[in-house]
Amino acid sequence: MLKRLLHSAPRDRWEAIGDRFAHVVGKDGVIRRKEELLTYECDGLASYRQRPALVVLPRSTEEVAAIVRLCQELELPWVARGAGTGLSGGALPVEDGVLLVTARMKQILATDLDNQRAVVQPGVINNWVTQAVSGAGFYYAPDPSSQIVCTIGGNVAENSGGVHCLKYGVTTNHVLGLKVVTATGEILDLGGSVPDMPGYDLTGLFVGSEGTLGVATEITLRILKTPESICVLLADFTSIEAAGAAVAAIVGAGIVPAGMEMMDNLSINAVEDVVGSGCYPRDAGALLLVELDGLELEVAANVERVAGLCRDNGARGIQTAYDAEMRQKLWKGRKAAFAAAGHLSPDYFVQDGVIPRTQLVSVLREIEALSDRYGYRIANVFHAGDGNLHPLILYDNSVEGALETVEELGGEILKLCVRAGGSISGEHGIGADKNCFMPDMFSPIDIATMLAVRQAFDPKGLANPGKLFPTPRTCGEAAIARKNKLSEASVAAVEVDLF
Amino acid sequence: MLKRLLHSAPRDRWEAIGDRFAHVVGKDGVIRRKEELLTYECDGLASYRQRPALVVLPRSTEEVAAIVRLCQELELPWVARGAGTGLSGGALPVEDGVLLVTARMKQILATDLDNQRAVVQPGVINNWVTQAVSGAGFYYAPDPSSQIVCTIGGNVAENSGGVHCLKYGVTTNHVLGLKVVTATGEILDLGGSVPDMPGYDLTGLFVGSEGTLGVATEITLRILKTPESICVLLADFTSIEAAGAAVAAIVGAGIVPAGMEMMDNLSINAVEDVVGSGCYPRDAGALLLVELDGLELEVAANVERVAGLCRDNGARGIQTAYDAEMRQKLWKGRKAAFAAAGHLSPDYFVQDGVIPRTQLVSVLREIEALSDRYGYRIANVFHAGDGNLHPLILYDNSVEGALETVEELGGEILKLCVRAGGSISGEHGIGADKNCFMPDMFSPIDIATMLAVRQAFDPKGLANPGKLFPTPRTCGEAAIARKNKLSEASVAAVEVDLF
């Protein structure tokens, strides 16, 4: 019967297919109306859009497995989606495909405070984990900027980072075990509740695989004790060189801040225009925000050391904040930096690349040179401690050809990161956005090996096709295709996830 | 010509094959004489022995690739070996196979102190890395007990831990990148010098794969700043329950010691018999060794807190040591514990399992019950902080049937660990020793997925066959086969790696 369905007229076919999925998840678990499907046509990378044929909303591992097996049977491509806050188009739907949305899988299944574990469904919001355990003095460390909206499932797919990953590591360092449904509909239990299980580390393989191996349906997270004391230190410098030297000195002294962020003059002014907190001196060449946590006396000692190292490297002024409200005030500008960029120009393009920390100053100078050459202003806001850059290219999308030029400039920045010994993505993932840059970083045999591993989980290539790995299309062709589809991407839609 | 070689008489055949390998690595790079091959017939798990047909000693990635491609062409199984200190038979040769020994790949290729990286060949001894960078105030954290002998390549294969993995993590947390030769002879560059590269985490997949995916030929390690201050605290308790409660209290207070070890009364007395330092009270039910590191005032504060928590939980006496010599004195007994067990009885069998830390006391009681039931004494020495148990079963191998019974008892302990939510190996690996227990921990589909991943690297299954994954042979059959091959395994040969 199904083979027949596939050959019937498109609308009838999808009606019949929808009924099959409704049989699994209930009528209210399938979205088929065109206007409702519009909500799902893009994620945080709003410049790529594609309406899915069908959205399916499972509640359990078993329902996910049944959905995936049905996709396998009908040979339908499918894409998993959490909150859709990703910035690389990882949750971009596939034409004539199914979008599996985890919005109804929002249960925290268990917490074990003694062993510092929590088991959650993929649709659980990142921030909820901390909320569930903070009363007892615990928290979940990875904190992407979108943490009040984004889901743990999405964090697992993208191996999300955040401000605190300098000290605490990214998502993969906090996932101990996974129940996953592979693209063939098999249910696997990877890892467990104790770390470093024997056998291949398939948990680590799965985290960051961007939905190309399957879907995680239960995630065992490590939770940490809330530190006794936290201090945020803001230091302002007359130049990026001086701030970069301070970063080098702090790391060189063996201090591991919880986070260490840098903003350049353009970002500082953008932020002050919008937030107007008065905390950030408008004439500074760069500022550093350093968060230190630990025992009270350890934090106090480290604050002294960091302040001394900043002064040694030319800091003009240093502010410190211990209480939560004051800390938030110092962080506020940094957190608003991307949104503020939207006020500097009609549109902006955010890049995400990594360089070895020691190359910071020289790479920033090269970015400056690229900015001059292309004639677009670039604001720099980034995780200085781990060399994760987020250059914001300011432009006006209504100008013919501007987006294409800006994308080219963004690509030049990525290639610069690779040449400096770094990487084409720090925390936003590859998705549909950067797969054409994968060959700049990986040899054909490296990529072939990844694809061979993929085969083990997804022989038919139905799970999130066209993402992560380069497709035969060149970057140029992809850009043209995208341009033709580009609808009115609003900056607002993206802002929620930017940090 | 080669096909002909394979069908000629065995000795001639291996002579001709040896010449082929000599063509790659030079005449002095091939060992073929029976008496010289004897050295390589076992690793630290001396109860499994098998002489290889040939030992080959490459010097470079290219030579490794040429060796592996030759094995592929001749369809020869091959096994990689570092120092051979492993305790699970991971480097046990294969009959009619090649042993690829990394003893001539001992170069530290680069150190980059600013970015805290070192790039080494696989034959580099673990301890050399620290020696190379300690003058500048750095060290390499993973410290298996065999660190003055074992190689980084072996550490990568086994994902080795050590006393300090409680705070600093195991090998996989310190490997950023790998150049590997896959079983098909391809050279891959996995990861890099910046952490969390995009694409599948094949670096993480490779670490701990026990030589079944290929050989690492260049390893990029993360090196850490030497802590400002280190203190070792020894607390003695009248019971295991009390010591276990102290462990729970320390972890519960959010303190993360660099290491936290426990020894029971039998181990304490064994150690005092041999080392006689007088530091360990013979009438203690259990003792804890807690190492704390960090800033001077942070360590001082944490020593106070840990001492207080130990006293609250019934510690009778507490000793602390800050200077290196005194610290070594307190550690000495712990480090000699396994060797000392050899003085309590003619032979001993060391088990390696993991349990959730909160199950410590109840599992130790169950081990005690098993000891009574089987009539063998069991000494317990273990990494209490992360629940990694090392029960030492004392026996006399000259008694008919003793080894078989002890192996059965060891298996019961592993099953107990799995039932408690733990794992069949903490840090010694699966190898040839525990592969028959894999089905106790992984479902058939979990194992099938690992094997499918293996296919991507080693379609012919030539790299370290018979290890890690269960073979059609049942445990019982394997034990019989092993018994028939068992030669005079000396305790001394094993002691070097025990901790």
Automatic annotation (TrEMBL), chains A, B:
One of its GO terms (molecular function) is FAD binding. Residues 48-226 form the FAD-binding PCMH-type domain. GO terms for cellular component: glycolate oxidase complex. Its cofactor is FAD. The keyword Flavoprotein applies. The keyword Glycoprotein does not apply. Its EC number is 1.1.3.15. PANTHER family: GLYCOLATE OXIDASE SUBUNIT GLCD. This is Glycolate oxidase, subunit GlcD. It comes from Rubidibacter lacunae KORDI 51-2.
